[in-house]
């Protein structure tokens, strides 16, 4: 069984909430999780979502929305928060977690930035990893990850079954 799975989702699907809910379900089933999920908590001054990544091992949250001021027309990713979240992801690789979850392989990762290095480190460490990939980013994901990964639908029961079966195999 492959240690890597990617949940493919369409634009407009509420993947951040899906991944946070999924992580809560898996924790309730007794899995030791590492990695990060994204929370979008209300609106910042410019009307964008205030985004934070939650470290699944500690519960710590790292703000990743940069407040650009009242004249701004949109949000911008805060690289400091993303770097702190990357440190939490790296720590999860050393802590013997059952599963590492990375909220998504998004635009930053497609561009060679974001959590791309931490995702690669998890793959190289043979740590089970679950990630979400928007359908239009699948070609970049395939180029990055190769062919040895399991595609999963954005269906909580299917993903949970995969994660639980993998945890039994690697335990």
Which secondary structure elements does this structure contain, and how are they paired or packed?
Elements: E1 4-9, H1 15-28, E2 33-43, E3 49-55, E4 61-63, E5 65-66, E6 76-77, H2 79-94, E7 99-105, H3 107-110, H4 116-124, E8 129-134, H5 138-145, E9 150-152, H6 156-170
Parallel strand pairs: 1-8, 1-9, 2-7, 7-8
Antiparallel strand pairs: 2-3, 3-4, 5-6
Helix pairs in contact: 1-6, 2-4
Describe the structure.
- This protein has one domain (4-170): 3-Layer(aba) Sandwich (Rossmann fold).
- 39% of the residues lie in helices and 27% in strands.
- The chain is built from six helices and nine strands.
- The chain has a seven-stranded mixed beta sheet with strand order 4-3-2-7-8-1-9, sandwiched between helices. Strands 5-6 form a two-stranded antiparallel ribbon.
- Helix 1 (15-28) crosses helix 6 and helix 2 runs parallel beside helix 4 (116-124).
- It is globular and about 40 Å long.
- The mean pLDDT is 84.
Label this structure with key terms.
Rossmann fold, 27% strand, 171 residues, alpha/beta, 9 strands, globular, 6 helices, two-stranded antiparallel ribbon, seven-stranded mixed β-sheet
Give the averaged pLDDT, no decimals.
84
- Residue stretches low in confidence (pLDDT < 50, at least 5 long) are none
How would you write the strand order of the largest sheet? 4-3-2-7-8-1-9
Question: What is the string of helix and strand elements?
Answer: EHEEEEEHEHHEHEH
Assign the CATH superfamily. Answer: P-loop containing nucleotide triphosphate hydrolases
Strand content: 25-35%
The beta-strand count equals 9
Structural class: alpha/beta
Q: Give me the Rg, rounded.
A: 15 Å
The major beta sheet can be summarized as: 7 strands, mixed
Distance between the amino and carboxyl termini: 13 Å
Q: Looking at the structure, what is the overall shape?
A: globular
Number of helical regions: 6
Q: What's the CATH first level?
A: Alpha Beta
Helix percentage range: 25-40%
Task: Report the CATH topology name.
Answer: Rossmann fold
Write down the domain tally: 1
- The CATH architecture name reads 3-Layer(aba) Sandwich
